[in-house]
C-alpha cells in the first residue's frame, strides 16, 4: 500500500516540476528616448547585429519589421517579429516548436531569450537596459 502512494507522490512531484517550466509569454518592448533620434537604418542595423550576436537567424528585413528565428540544439525553435520605429520596438512571438506554447504560456527559456535580445538591442543603441 505504501509503495503505490510513494509512486503517486513522485509522479505528482515530477508533474509539478514540469509545470514550472511554463511561464506567461512575454513580448518585450522598449520606448526610445525622445531626445535621441535614431534613423531607420540605425535601428535596423542595431537589431540585426543584436540578433546575430545572440545567434538568431534573420529571416526577413522590412522598413518597420524584422523577422527572425532561433534554433537551439535542433530541439527548440522560436520565431519572432520585431516591429520598430523611431519611438521604440517590440519583440512579438510568431510561433515555436518544442517550447510547449499553449494558452499564452511558453517554456521559460523563450522569455529569457527574448529578454536577452531586448537588452542586446538597447546595448547596440547605447541605451540602458531599462530606459
Strand content: 25-35%
Q: Low-confidence parts lasting 5 or more residues at pLDDT below 50? A: none
Based on the coordinates given, report the CATH architecture: 2-Layer Sandwich
Distance between the termini: 59 Å
Give the overall average pLDDT.
Answer: 89
The biggest beta sheet reads:
5 strands, antiparallel
Strand arrangement in the largest pleated sheet: 2-6-5-4-3
Domain module tally: 1
Helix content: 25-40%
How are the secondary structure elements laid out?
Blueprint: H1 2-19, E1 22-24, E2 29-31, H2 40-53, E3 57-61, E4 65-72, E5 76-85, E6 88-97, E7 105-107, H3 108-124
Antiparallel strand pairs: 1-7, 2-6, 3-4, 4-5, 5-6
Helix pairs in contact: 2-3
Concise summary:
By secondary structure, the protein is an alpha+beta fold. The chain is built from 3 helices and 7 strands, in the order αββαβββββα.
Tags for this model:
five-stranded antiparallel β-sheet; two-stranded antiparallel sheet; 131 residues; alpha+beta; TATA-Binding Protein
Task: Describe the structure in your own words.
The protein is α+β, with helices and mostly antiparallel strands and 131 residues long. The chain has a single domain, classed as TATA-Binding Protein (2-Layer Sandwich), CATH 3.30.310.80. It is 37% helix and 32% strand. The strands form 2 sheets. Strands 2-6-5-4-3 form a 5-stranded antiparallel β-sheet, covered by helices on one side. Strands 1-7 form a two-stranded antiparallel ribbon. The radius of gyration is 19 Å and the shape is elongated. The model has no long low-confidence stretch (mean pLDDT 89).
